[in-house]
Design goal:
With about 150 residues, this protein is mainly alpha-helical. The chain is built from seven helices and four strands, in the order H-H-H-H-E-E-E-E-H-H-H.
């Protein structure tokens, strides 16, 4: 990484990774090579003296429960709505459940669009995600016209 940049955790994420030093974690990942796969990172993290080791759950019972919780989240995020006569791959998929910032649960999308507060929160989330997208791809001149439309 260039000398004028440092690696940090996204706000609020440090505790998820057991407060491991983000810069050291990034350096260990860089040391793998030009690119790194999750499998390569896992192999590196097996070293008990690595900063990456701190980021993973090594108690197999706890890890299994966390993995199953992640799978349940994937179920919620991967179910989409489609019309019965629509092709298998809808043009613009709509998720069956959406995370509600109001209730902090996954709520059926049809309920969110019927509730003014929930719908407003969904719109605000969409705008946050668009701003993140804009920041992430702001260096791509080919997207300038599209990115200029985002506040």
């Amino acid at each position: 990484m260039e000398n004028n940049f440092v690696s940090v955790w996204r706000p609020g994420m440090a505790s998820i990774f057991h407060n491991a030093d983000a810069q050291r974690v990034a350096e260990e990942i860089y040391s793998i090579g030009e690119g790194a796969t999750p499998e390569q990172i896992y192999e590196k993290a097996k070293g008990k003296n690595t900063e990456l080791h701190k980021c993973l759950e090594w108690d197999n019972r706890k890890a299994a429960d966390k993995y199953r919780l992640q799978q349940c989240g994937n179920i919620l995020r991967c179910l989409i709505i489609k019309k019965k006569d629509e092709p298998e791959k809808p043009q613009q998929p709509i998720r069956v459940f959406h995370y509600s910032d109001v209730t902090h649960t996954y709520v059926p999308t049809v309920k969110i669009v019927r509730n003014v507060d929930e719908y407003q929160a969904l719109l605000e989330q969409a705008m946050r995600e668009l701003r993140i997208f804009k920041a992430k791809y702001s260096t791509l001149s080919e997207l300038k016209e599209i990115l200029d439309l985002i506040d």
